[in-house]
Amino acid sequence: MTEGQRHAWERWWPEYGLDLMSPDAPGPLDLDGWFGRTAPVVLEIGPGTGESTAAMAAAAPETNHLAVEVYRPGLAQLLMRIAEFGLTNLRLLRADVVPVLRDRIGPDTLAGIRVYFPDPWPKRRHHKRRLIQPEFVALAASRLAPDGVLHLATDWTHYADQMRAVCDAEPTLRGGTVPRPDWRPLTKFERRARAEGREVRDLLYRRV
Questions:
Q1: pTM of the full structure
Q2: Are the C-beta atoms of residues 117 and 154 closer than 8 Å to each other?
Q3: Residue 102 sits in which domain range?
Q4: Of 30, 119, 155, 168, catalytic
Q5: Beta pairing partners, 203
Q6: What's the CA angle centered on 134, arms 165 and 189, to 5 degrees?
Q7: Neighbouring residues of 100: CB distance < 8 A, sequence distance ≥ 6
Q8: Looking at the 3D structure of the chain, how many domains does it have?
Q9: CA-based torsion, 45, 50, 54, 55: positive or negative
């Protein structure tokens, strides 16, 4: 981590973060208690450095935002954004997302799950490592409340096709490809992808 990220981690992680990769991590999450209020919860998987995460949390103060990431530098950068924007509705988890959904969050809990630009694993032999697989989508859908939203975005056409096929096959979801919603910020990463000629596709599905 940079010096600034290290300072942010030491200063704000105890207040805004929880390390579920620690062997003494707690069991199921008390989200209302952690946020200090009862409100819809949106989970973002892999926020990177948190550019869009912080912007969406600032734009929707009535919603509790929960970001899950493994890498500490990215989480530290997001802590810096929390401090910069004075956000009180954003919490961070250092964890692998599958155990979080399976063991820490109960069924019918989340108002939304966001997966923006996950690792595409472009080589065919690595496609099985992609996050968006039938087992994961079934688990994610089970954690959404009725009418909750699964929102995916990718700049890899083949992965977008796979996302569509997997989500279409999940019986508890309804939706498909949509134009980029105005509330999803256009990040530097996405601008670069477009400049390099890669089409960005959003897929939005609702739990029935």
A1: 0.95
A2: yes
A3: 3-207
A4: 119
A5: 152, 177
A6: 70
A7: 20, 68, 93
A8: 1
A9: negative
199: helix, coil or strand? Answer: coil
* 27-59 confidence digits (pLDDT tens): 899 999 999 999 999 999 999 889 999 999 999
Cα–Cα distance for residue pair 142/146, rounded to 1 Å: 9
CATH number of the domain that residue 137 is part of: 3.40.50.150
- φ and ψ of 122, to 5 deg: -70, -25
State whether the Cα torsion 54-132-181-101 is positive or negative: negative
Is 182 one of the annotated active-site residues of the chain? no
Amino acid (one-letter) located at 45: I
- pLDDT tens, 146-184? 999 999 999 999 999 999 999 999 999 999 999 999 999
Edge-to-edge strand order for the sheet containing 110-116? 17-19, 90-94, 64-69, 41-45, 110-116, 144-154, 201-207, 173-178
Residues 6+ apart with CB under 8 A from 186: 180
